[in-house]
Amino acid sequence: MSDRRDPPPPHLGVLEPGHSPVKRGWALAAASVGSVLALLLALGLGSWAFDYRRYQQHEGRLRRLVEKAPTLDRVERGLEDEGSHLVASPAAPAALAEVARDRAGAKAAEVLEKGRRWPVTRVFEAGDMVYFLFFDGDGVLRDFTCASR
Description:
Layout: H1 21-68, H2 72-81, E1 85-88, H3 93-103, H4 108-117, E2 120-126, E3 129-135, E4 141-148
Antiparallel strand pairs: 1-2, 2-3, 3-4
């Protein structure tokens, strides 16, 4: 056996020569900022993905409904039966403009444009979304706009 001893292992909190507490503080601050930024990025992407999926589900549902060309009374009954409530039936352009301003948010211009094209509009609340449904003169569903509440 030799009398030679290995040096003790380095311990946290023991500063090596040339490393000041200020440098360590800056390193910890930079790591903290980087971690917070990564967390914010992950949360932001998750929120965006959730909203995108939510919109796609509602848009797909309404697109399939338009393809079936149901009548006004059938659409109203079906949506009411599933818990989506009729909130407006604007008959005049001014009434549609008011509902669009109050409930369509960024899609208000789209609602007004489609409202000029189709004579009958119904507005439903479906969960956390607002459906603007547009019917032709015969009461057949022809178009829609889906907006977030």
